[in-house]
Amino acid sequence: MKKRIAVLLSLSAALCAPGLVPGTTSVMADETENASSGRTELVVGLSQDLDNSLDPYQITAAGTREVLFNVFEGLVKPDTDGNFVDAVASSHSISEDGLTYTFTLRDGVKFHNGETATCDDVLYSFETCAQTATNTAVVGALSGIQDITASGNDIIITLPEANSSFLSTVSSVSIVPKDYKDQATAPVGTGPFKFDSYSPQDKAVFVRNDDYYGEKAALTKVTCRIYEDANALYTALSAGTLDLAFHLTLDQVNNLSNGYEVIEGEMNLVQALYLNNGKAPFDDERVRQALCYAIDIDGILDLTEDGHGTKLGSSVYPSFTKYFDESLVDAYPYDPQKAMELLEEAGATGLEFTIKVPSNYTPHVDTANVIVEMLSAVGINAHIKKVEWSTWLNDVYQDRDFEATVIGFDAAYLSPDALLQRWVSTDSSNMINYSNKEYDAAIEKAQHTTEDEAQAAAYKEAEKILSDTAANVYIQDLADFVVLNPEFTGYAFYPLYAVDFAKIRPAG
User: Fold this and answer.
1) Mind listing the pLDDT tens digit for each residue in 137-157?
2) Which of 80, 200, 256, 487 is 20 to 30 Å apart from 455, CA to CA?
3) What's the CA gap between 43 and 221, in Å, rounded?
4) CATH code at 217?
5) pTM
6) Pairing relation of β-strands 203-208 and 381-387?
7) Among positive and negative, which fits the CA dihedral 309, 313, 315, 316?
8) Same-domain pairing of 348 and 459
9) Structural domain that includes position 116
10) Bridge-partner residues for 357, per DSSP?
11) Phi-psi region of 88 (alpha: psi -120 to 50; beta: other; left: phi over 0)
12) What is the pLDDT of residues 374-396, one digit of tens each?
């Protein structure tokens, strides 16, 4: 079986065979200043379109959030090591009891529309985010604020009880100008790049913010071209019309022959076969457990990424160090016989279902193909239905009209809540319709625990419940392969979904 799947994947890669000899590139003249070294305009390939709304509080797709990381900032923001550094705030302090946070607004910070950021803008941003954000974990954390006031150039936030994750919540509140009405179509923030234009299914353009309070970006312009067809993106990359592409597969980078630098990191997401717990037969825990035993996770890593990637056992990935429970990784060792016994016990012999997968994400499509082959060995007939990204968002994520899907969930901000809150029974993002009172209680306990070790233990308790009940078939944190034109340097990985254009500069 492994040989047959490997052939299938290699044929897929062959369809994207590069057409240039090593070391040569071609550059689109209207999107770069010149073809010589030292040019300051970057062309990026995106594998999905941006969200319908570019309002920072309405973003749902990780791909949109990672690009707009360059446009929006909070009072603090994460660095590449996961620390929170001052951004719109010049400094911050936390009282000894952990209840009072004081942020001093940085002098002279300008929004992209030319207005100077004030404390009123900060108060407006926190209030608007708390009332309108689609990220329910952030809304929940903000709703717990006891008081938020401005005093001179300081923003003072008081909590009813200490929360060791609160600074991560603050980082997720983008500071925007008060009463600005066009964030959905013409977003305005304080970041190192300004939004210039956006053409759906075509491209988004960003230009350097020359009024940025910090170090100015070396790049003057970034054009993000959208390729929802994976083959089209790879063809453009192979032809040299792109300078940067990320989230590529190992097959793609191995077949690239134009001399681009390949950089490997972690994608920082939870890839899984997500199961609709609200639909039969996946409302039966035994059926879900059978799928866990029937799927060889090591085999998936070997066949799709030649062993790259990190196995997961629940809805937290390794970058969340103290919250990641490595003991869950092998909770369901590959055991086809056990899988068939559970299926028979549940009366689900001969199970047949459909896996909806966004066609623009080659790693998820490849994983789904391997899963289908593995399930067939235990008598399960799974079918793959590839859909466009916008269709997946509408049908699967929003309407929950699916049986199973292969996708990866990231963290919108550096807190385990960003990954675990979505499976709370009443959460609007709970697309798998997971319902478990013990899980809900564990999350609530973690959110209201002030001591670090006890909080980590509570989150791990919640992760174990997800594993024990086989909420989903957890697979991996994918390896992230980035390809960069050697005319540029400085690409950096973050412990969450983010691409930092400000760190990229001309080589040499």
Assistant:
1) 888 889 889 999 999 999 999
2) 80
3) 9
4) 3.40.190.10
5) 0.77
6) unpaired
7) negative
8) yes
9) 72-171
10) 386
11) alpha
12) 999 999 999 999 999 999 999 99
